[in-house]
Amino acid sequence: MLTAPAGDGLARPLAYRWWRDAVIYQVYVRSFLDSTGDGIGDLAGVRAGLPYLKKLGVDGIWLSPFYPSPQHDHGYDVADYRDVDPVFGNLAEFDLLMTDVRRLGVKVLLDIVPNHCSSEHSWFREALAAEPGSEARARFHFADGRGPGGDEPPNNWHSMFGGPAWSRVTEPDGTPGQWYLHMFTSEQPDLNWRNAQVGAHFDQVLRFWLDRGVDGFRIDVAAGLFKHRDLPDSPDPAADARTRDSVNPLAWNQPEVHDVWRHWRSVCEEYTARDGRERLLVGEVSVPTAREHAQYVRPDELHQAFFFDLLGAPWNADAFHKVISEAMQDIAGTGSTITWVLNNHDQVRTVTRYGESGTEGSGLGAARARAAALLMLALPGAAYIYQGEELGLPEVVDLPDEVLTDPIFHRTGSRARIRDGCRVPLPWSGHASPFGFTSGAEGAKPWLPQPDWFAEHATDRALADTRSFWHLYRDGLQLRDSLPQLGEGTLRWLQSPPDVLAFVRGDGLVCAVNFGTAPVPAPVGGAPLLSSGPCPAGVLPGSTAAWWISDCTNP
User: Fold this and answer.
1) Is the pTM higher than 0.90?
2) Per the database record, which ranges form the Glycosyl hydrolase family 13 catalytic domain (predicted)?
3) Distances from the Cα of 419 to the Cα of 96, 161, 187, 250, 454, angstroms
4) What span, in angstroms and rounded, lies between the C-alpha atoms of 473 and 465?
5) How far apart are CA 254 and CA 183, in angstroms?
6) Rounded distance, CA 266 to CA 279, Å?
7) H/E run at residue 238
8) Which residues contact 135 (CB under 8 A, 6 or more apart)?
9) Under DSSP, is residue 133 helix (H, G, I), strand (E, B) or coil?
């Protein structure tokens, strides 16, 4: 069997390497494509969109949660981990989807949510009906309150979505009772991973979906499963309240979590040993430093963990150089590959984030987003693309309060950092809402309203315009697939003008990005192989990225 060197220096079959430089497309199912006319995307819609994704050139898809759920947090409050919510279809429809992706050669990752479940999960309903100290409550974090009558929460922790991280229950006899922990909404009670039943349950969940043919899992809140045994007060509750980042060291990044990932890795390797198809674990790991991030992708733990530092970097050459260098030093050194992201379902869309003002994102924001995409695709490792980024969709920032569904808004009353604006259903065709998103009768409404200017970004228009974001992504993916210099490997930085970042991949593939606004001399001569905007020979315009094939020996 053909082999190729892995990052840890070991020779592995090529079949084992697919994830190391894969480009995965995140499908936010409820906003991708609606096949039933109810205004909510579904699994049949994903099936219908597969040819589009295959044409784009991605290696696989990551599906947001489609499990039975009351949808308090759009499926991240799971009531049953081994079924499909009727809103999205059923298990038979999921199996048809798996048949189609196999035929097309596309990988499938499922989103799994092990930190918390839904308050409607059978375990939590059982816990509410049980007595304090019972086995049913031991699966969660139940505790007595503080103060007179236990009227105050057990500690000062804050929810990631605003407000206290504790809610009080009414006991079966009708009296005020214990409190339970929820680091997100009150409808998402945190599971107690120190209880062996929790780990055993998720073993069954993993095997259920692996037996149905999935290629792996994106793991939600991968650093959060364990809490400090004593549940003490946070040392800086004010900081916890100011941010949705996982800053409380008592609630996140506990050392015991690594044993879970070692076990899950062994389960995946068991399936790989059967058929030679390596299953992937990619974690949502929010930790303070690249060095701590690297601990999650050691050879016997997660295969990958999203490197969010690139997403959070300001549009600045020095900032990008710093985060890329730290990742190459701390993460690639583990034998894993770095997993780059510029956006996801929790973030402001790239065009708007990089723009200066305007509901639809400025032209400068679009130029920077195109350049950032080309930069990401040139970096060593894997990359994840959030749906709609390939269309250059800006954030929808002016949704009226009455349509907002994000629990952050409803818990805080603030629109700061709410996520509805990046989740508006995709525009596929036409000049007016629903833009081909839903197959319902005329007048059918998507679950979030689409603005009129979505017409400019509709898929049919993007496919017809060779200058569109879609063609930039498609061309970049095709070149990434065909050029041996790209994908897995290392990079070498080049000397470059101020505000310009340039590096070499492999044998003479140069990527350069001008973070400024004024044109500068290109780091290499000649016409570029691919650029994010008009790029004359010998010139790198402002807010533009380009790839060159060159014999450049600039140290």
Assistant:
1) yes
2) 26-419
3) 31, 11, 18, 26, 18
4) 13
5) 15
6) 10
7) helix 237-242
8) none
9) coil
Amino acid letter at 266? S
- The tens-digit pLDDT sequence of the chain (555 residues) is 223 333 333 334 444 589 999 999 999 999 999 999 999 999 999 999 999 999 999 999 999 999 999 999 999 999 999 999 999 999 999 999 999 999 999 999 999 999 999 999 999 999 999 999 999 999 999 999 999 999 999 999 999 888 899 999 999 999 999 999 999 999 999 999 999 999 999 999 999 999 999 999 999 999 999 999 999 998 877 766 555 556 788 999 999 999 999 999 999 999 999 999 999 999 999 898 889 999 999 999 999 999 999 999 999 999 999 999 999 999 988 888 999 999 999 999 999 999 964 444 468 999 999 999 999 999 999 999 999 999 999 999 999 878 888 777 667 767 777 788 899 999 999 999 999 999 866 557 999 999 999 999 999 999 999 999 999 999 999 999 999 999 889 999 999 999 999 999 998 899 999 999 999 998 887 889 999 999 998 899 999 999 999 876 554
Rounded CA separation 207/48 (Å) = 27
Q: Strands 491-493 and 500-505: what pairing?
A: antiparallel
Mind spelling out the 3-state secondary structure of 481-511?
A: HHCCCCCCCCEEECCCCCCEEEEEECCCEEE
Beta strands, E only, 138-224: 142-143, 166-170, 176-181, 216-219
Give the CA distances from residue 527 to residues 501, 516, 550, 554, in Å, rounded to whole numbers and listed in that order: 18, 20, 10, 18
Contacts of 459 (CB under 8 A, 6+ apart): 52, 391, 426, 427, 428, 429, 436, 470
Instruction: Name the residues annotated as catalytic.
Output: 220, 270
Closest CA to 22 of 427, 341, 238, 241: 341
Dihedral sign from CA coordinates of 129, 133, 139, 140? positive
Which residues have CB under 8 Å from 258's CB, separation 6+?
Answer: 295, 296, 301
Provide the β-strand partners of residue 216. 109, 280
Residue whose tokens read 């060197």: 5
Q: Where in 331-489 does DSSP place strands (E)?
A: 339-341, 382-386
Contact indicator for 154, 144 with CB cutoff of 8 Å: yes
Tell whether omega for the bond before 434 is within 30 degrees of 0, i.e. cis.
yes
Q: Which amino acid is at 449?
A: P
